[in-house]
Request: fold
Amino acid sequence: MPRPLRAKFSHLSLVSSMAICQAVFLSPAFAQDAGNAAAEGDDALEELVVMGSPITASQAQSIKQQREADNLIDVVTGDAAGRFPDQNSAAVLARLPAVAVQRDQGQERYIQVRGAPNRWTSVSIDGVTTIGADEGGSQRAFRFDAIPTVMLKGIEVNKSLTPDLSAEAVVARVNLETFSPFDYEGFSLQGDVGYGFMSLGDGDQLQGSARASWSGEKWGIIGAISHYEREQTTDNREFEYDADGTAEKFDIRSYKVDRSNDGAILGLEFRPSEGHRIFAKSIYSLFADNERRNQYVFQIADALSGTIGETEGTLVGVPVQGSFNDGKYRTRNYINTLGGDHAWDTWKLDWRINYTRTENETDLPLVLETQQDNLIKPSITYTRDDPNFPIISLYETVSDGAGFAAGEALDGFDQSAFDFNLMLPLESEVITKSWTYKADLSRELELGGNTWTVTGGAEYADRDIAGSILTGAAPTVLLSALLPVVGQSFNAGDYVTDKPWDTNYPLGFAFNYIDDQRMNEDLQKGLDALEEAGLYDPSDYQVPTDQYTINEKVLAGYGKMEGDMGDVHLVAGLRVERASLDVGGFIDNDTSVVPVSYEQDYTDFFPSLNVKYEFAPEWIIRGAIQRGISRPSFGTIRAGASIDDIDGTITGGNPTLQPERTWGGDLRLERYLSGAGLMSVGGFYRHVSNVLFNSTAEVDNDFYDTDGFDRTGYDYVTTLNGGDGNLYGLELEYVQRWIFLPEPFHGLGFQGNLSFLDGKFETPDGRKAPFPGTSDVIANASLFYEAYGVSARLSYQWRDDWVDTLSFEGFGDQSRKAYGNLDFSFRYAINYRFTVFLDANNLTNEKYIAYEGDVSHPTEVEQIGRRYLAGIRFSY
Reply:
């Protein structure tokens, strides 16, 4: 995603930063000078490279920050993010070693560091822990697509922890760092505008951002706004199978999606004297997704007669269900921080007060139409030479006296051939409110002839979460039966347009779009009339067992020592966390809805040790040992449950869940190269206990006993703690601009990483299961060129197959097929003020495929097409 060029980096002097700004924009020849400076020695070369080229400058800053760090981190600066065609922070993070990305309709959303479940990565913004909530209301996972990259000065992935960092991380802690007004001297204004299109559906892409700051001797102020939107068409096929792997449903979908990301920052900073600063900063972000779904499901297993084969079938009277919605998804973040940093001689005090509110809303009024009359159900033949794309031929269904048979061939599907309409109101909302207080006090001491820094600190978080999960358990509204009572009618077939679906997927015939927006407007009018007549009450469709409240308090105290012993730098310490949890919900036992609550508290100790040894010039070896924790997600620990006393089953949350706890180590060898370069090889190991997974167990306590019912021994369908597991891997990285090459090739460079991952955990039945989300191989590679005012990059991302959801029934786990993404970005500095850019994403037009058991049983095949965006950047 194009972003303003950022020429000031936190570890460079003010004078150097002004030189960088000039070097980036002044003239194409300046970049050439950097390549010609090899004869002047490495120090001069590095200085000129940093000042002369945006990509290399940002690489140099990232590597400098990584080299100086006390722990194992990977870093990307805001300007490096601007060199890529990335619109959100998830897309940027996916380019770092061992970081994989989870996509929704092709767009990056969550990340999986080292292939681990996303709940094993915690997130902070400007050093303060931030909790997230997903759109289904069940997960604690932070949505990175809600944070536009233009807001960020840099991103750190902490792969080992120090005691001052929250222990709520099994594999990594990601810190998103925003800008300060003192990153620039005086007045600064930067921004960009861009326009582009999506190849599938020819939808628009629009982008714009602006950031202004002013800093004087003591005061500084910064403000920024950003907006990105795209009109996206999503091609989709989904399938369902029985326990033997025989197809039951062909699900044909097309989505029209309008997505946007908005962000704003306002910050005020006061620096009364050297070594002191006080700041206040507010961040707002909004992710908005307006999704119009057109969906037809051929329920082949319910055909009146016929045969279903693996590669072909002939069926009479196949019921088809139509599903349509004009859905709304919204994620809002309000992040407010007041803080200060103070230094007096050998003493230093840092403090933060933060209030964060997250709102996640899902509104999906899903309209369903079904076929009751057998004569309107089409007969079909199909072939599945390619299991991803069944080719269907349509026929009339006729009565032959003894039953039903296939009649004349049809040219297309009759989208008005439905005789029953209903609505499923799917809604969820999660609101999190979190107060965090944090203070660190440190002092430098002389011990044994060495200078050591001793730090003590405390952190307290008070989090309130209220919401509901999206289960689809709400009763349906029978539109066909209710609306005539108030003198209205409703038929989804009346909203068929004359516009064919935008699709690249073969089918055998074409669908036309339903006007979901007009349908939803008319539907709402009908519901209002039913409500006025007392025939519809929206509250009746809120499922109590889906709702929950959670209060979570975490009090932490920690101490650490850091210092040098010759060429060895040590950071050692202990963090202690006391957590208390109060969970509320409802139990539905078929006769009544009963409120319930559950409390638990626990204390954990988290020692850690980080060692950095510079055993030769430009060579560093790092090692770390640590403990960590991952607390269960919101929906999984809800106290709500539905009870079926006839079948003896309980389905719901599990407030008795224990956190997943881990210990492990890291080891990495780093070699720093000229041309802002780095080569590294590292390995890691994590042992995890109490691994969470979805399954069925036997109730062994009285928590769900009500009204004299003893429910001990019922089947409990929920999330459970499993046994122990082990996650391990090897990470390789190489980054360098090849300044040693002759002109004009001196502008070439490479940035890439390769990760090999593996791991399994033990379920209660003794099965060794893979961790969901773990690809065996993750690879990123970028070839770039920067000289003569040109800055260009060709980037490729690839990840191997991975298990998405474990299955303890049926014939296999739900998995995702390997895929790669090829992107291209181009920038040209016209002059000091202006740079033009062109970004092209997903040049391979990738298909994202999920499957059950093996690839011959796909469950989802999705494609969004290529994306193109061009524009201009400005800087004053």
